[in-house]
Design brief:
CATH superfamily of the largest domain: Tetratricopeptide repeat domain
CATH class of the largest domain: Mainly Alpha
CATH architecture of the largest domain: Alpha Horseshoe
Radius of gyration: 19 Å
Helix content: over 70%
Number of domains: 2
Number of strands: 0
Structural class: mainly alpha
Shape: globular
CATH topology of the largest domain: Serine Threonine Protein Phosphatase 5, Tetratricopeptide repeat
């Protein structure tokens, strides 16, 4: 079962927004950007978009803040699956931040976030090129935490393309870099989730259960029970338990995860529909074949409709690859 990519750079961006010294007016702008980012992270994308748009319309942001605002706007639009608007926002951010050498870290984050959008759009090769570019940016400034995050994202991309050896290499690099940095619970959870995915690929069910349990514990600690990441953590753990033969516990965990995602994101969320398909697979193993077949058919149909509504006409700006 594939992991969906998250945006672990949000925490780093939040720290940059509140930690950069400046004048009181600039500090106020940074605080408003940080609040907007917090709204996006908490699943309130519509409110985040409104807050960022007010800031952009005010013309009160300096160059770096403007680039960061467009980056946050891209994340928020992507959360709402408005991919054309997300792409426009990310490309605006990249256009601005690539011309600010002193803010290489922010530029690298915008690159990686744009790579995440390309993953969502089903363009893995372009996503890989963008994320490799982000990796080189962070290597130049010896940013171990950001290198760990990008390598984790590249590992996920490789695993999704069934390039296991390549993915293992990136995951090993991510773990080594993580030892040289201080990572928050979200990023530690993402790394552990990648270890779980690799264990699934290698047929190590017990290892997958252990890794996904760590991820779930970290997401619960960071966000509480009612958060999409926590819900997804329950689904991943349940799927791993099913592979280990723990069907009763697996079904319970997956039902919990589905309920959390439904409450926080709705039934038309991609994660919810993918979770339903995974749950149907466990139901089938438990003997409930008719129920499983109906659930899987309906979820796959809704997922296909969702994908058809995506931005088929999005094109990649050549500027992103310079």
């Amino acid at each position: 079962m594939n992991n969906l990519r998250v945006h672990p750079f949000a925490v780093i961006l939040a720290l940059m927004l509140v930690a950069t010294p400046g004048l009181s007016g600039q500090a106020s702008a940074r605080e408003r950007l940080a609040r907007a980012l917090s709204l996006e992270r908490d699943g309130q994308a519509e409110q985040a978009i409104a807050a960022i748009q007010v800031l952009l319309d005010s013309k009160s942001l300096d160059t770096v803040e403007t680039g960061q605002a467009w980056d946050i706007l891209g994340l928020a639009y992507q959360s709402r699956r408005e991919f054309a608007s997300a792409q426009h926002a990310f490309e605006q951010s990249l256009r601005i931040l690539e011309n600010v050498p002193a803010n290489a870290r922010g530029y690298g984050m915008a690159l990686d976030n744009f790579g995440g959008l390309l993953v969502a759009l089903g363009q893995p090769e372009e996503a890989g090129r963008i994320q490799e570019k982000a990796l080189h940016v962070f290597e130049k400034i010896n940013d171990h935490a950001s290198v760990a995050i990008v390598c984790s994202n590249l590992a996920a991309l490789a695993f999704g393309q069934k390039q296991v050896r390549r993915g293992r290499k990136y995951l090993d690099r991510a773990q080594k870099e993580a030892q040289l940095a201080s990572l928050d619970d979200d990023k530690l959870a993402a790394l552990s989730s990648m270890r779980g995915w690799l264990s699934v690929i290698e047929g190590d069910a017990a290892g997958a259960v252990a890794a996904y349990q760590v991820s779930l514990d970290l997401w619960t600690k960071r966000h509480g029970e009612q958060h999409p990441s926590t819900g997804w953590g329950y689904v991943l753990l349940g799927d791993a338990k099913a592979a280990a033969g723990e069907l009763t516990s697996a079904l319970a965990d997956m039902r919990t995860g589905l309920a959390v995602i439904e409450r926080t994101q709705g039934r038309q969320d991609e994660r919810y529909l993918k979770a339903e398909i995974a749950y149907a697979g466990v139901l089938e193993r438990s003997g409930a074949r008719a129920e499983a077949a109906q659930l899987k058919t309906e979820a796959e149909r809704e997922l296909q409709k969702l994908h058809h509504a995506q931005c088929d006409g999005c094109t990649i700006s050549a500027a992103a690859f310079r």
